[in-house]
Amino acid sequence: MKRAASFALGVLLTGAAIASDAQLDSSAARIGPATGLADSAALRATVFGASPQDAAPLPQSVPLEEIDIALPWARPVPDVFWFDRRLRVWFSAQENPAPLAIVISGIGSDGNTSKLSTLRAALYEAGYHVLTMPSPTFPGFIVSASSTGVAGDLLQDDRDLYAAMRQIIAHLPRQVQITEIDILGYSLGGANAAVVKSIDAAEGRLKIRRAVMINPPVSLFTSVERLDNLFAINIGSGDAGVERLYKRLYTRLANLYRTSDRVRIDDTDLLSAAAAVLKTDADFSAAIALTFRIALMNMFFAGDLYAGTGVVVDPRHPPRVGDSLEETARILRGKPFSEYFAKVFAPYYLAHRANATPASLKADNRLDIIGTTLRTDPDYYAQTNSDDVILDKEELVWLRSTLGDRIAVYDHGGHLGNLGERQQIADMLDMLSGRWKSAVK
Question: How far apart are CA 214 and CA 189, in angstroms?
């Protein structure tokens, strides 16, 4: 039986509106171009993913168990999120003692995406138990595992992730024997993995051995603001451009949803639909930006509801089961990440964090917060692409200089477009084993 659909699907299938011209002009002045935004190859790699001829050989099937766990610190669950009371994660167990790989999903995504399935298969084939977890920005995690309900703070989100991991591992079946623990993630999940390992280094509860970041952002805020620019530039500042894109994607996405048993359509499904019907660089740019906007809308909705900021949800009359969210979705479609920061995120954390300022909140949400650790600890690794659409040139230089010979920078792939390729998988496994040696990639 299908679970209840997430807010994201209702948002997507009801059309969209976007940021105003003023918002676009202001944001464009602040955010520089990403390294791959004007590169057709990067855009297409991001949309199409790894080509079949380059894909790593993977097992046809992997044993998989869904684990639903109630966490003791969970906040009261709003009625509209009744179906997310328990955290859902997925576990693949080896028959014999083995290391455990914990894999964290990308922004706004659950713990069983297509990308996670690829990584799960590669890790299981290599002899790992595999635990895949949602992003702390996914509504299901926000409801069941967040201690604040306001996602997007790197350190706070990762404290919640770390606490959830400890609970899950403690409740695994007794016959599961874990010899070591490694952690990795893709996109925002890569940054989460690195920060979780740094938390564990201080607390020592899990004794995480190595961390691998796959296409991480240096700053979530800067990357998403850049993608909001991309959304506005390639779709337009009014409803007409979004309506055209919506009509071109609607039939394929609606049919996909009707035949899907999953909770939500993930970013891979959206980009697959785009690949089938869109042709130009502007089309591909719009589809990429749309996936990030949808993830933001979910986070914005949940954060506003929990924080009671009243931007889109009246805190005196929160939505209940069965209420229409169409008007809420219409409002959210026009709100860029900067508005989430200004009206939900910052007011909440300024009220709950002593001596915080808007500038300090942004600074605290960069990988710089563990910069010294990334420079000096040999057990942190990264993989990225020279044309990754979520990075600008300065951020790529920072990653290179910070990680030194512990980063692989490939010359193609856009954002996650080479995830699953033979070279990417081989390097990832070598990094986790400690065998990886730097080379020109």
Answer: 8
105-114, 144-153, 190-199, 319-328: least confidently modelled range: 319-328
**H/E element, 384:** strand 380-385
- Going by C-beta distance under 8 Å and a sequence separation of 6 or more, which residues neighbour residue 309? 303, 315, 343, 344, 347, 348
State the alpha helices, DSSP H only, in 278-404.
281-307, 326-333, 337-340, 346-352, 358-363, 371-376, 393-403
For β-strands 129-133 and 208-214, DSSP reports them as unpaired
pLDDT in tens, 62-115: 999 999 999 999 898 888 888 788 999 999 999 999 999 999 999 999 999 999
Structure tokens, 144: 């069941």
Name, in order, each residue with C-beta under 8 angstroms of 52's C-beta and a sequence gap of 6 or more.
none
- DSSP conformation letters of 400-440: HHHHGGGEEEESS-TTTTTTTBHHHHHHHHHHHHT------
pLDDT single digits (tens) 48-77: 889 899 999 999 899 999 999 999 998 988
**109/251: higher pLDDT:** 109
SS3 content of the chain, % helix, strand, coil (to 5): 50, 10, 35
Distance CA 144, CA 147 (A): 9
What is the SS3 assignment for 183? strand
8 A C-beta contact, residue 380 and residue 355: no
- Spatial strand order of the sheet with 407-410 comes to 65-69, 87-92, 129-133, 98-104, 178-186, 208-214, 380-385, 407-410
Structure tokens at 265: 């359509």
What Å distances lie between residue 276 and 158, 252, 258, 413, CA to CA? 36, 9, 18, 19
The residue with greater pLDDT, 207 or 43, is 207
- Rounded CA separation 296/302 (Å): 10
pLDDT for res 21 = 32
Structure tokens at 258: 């009707």
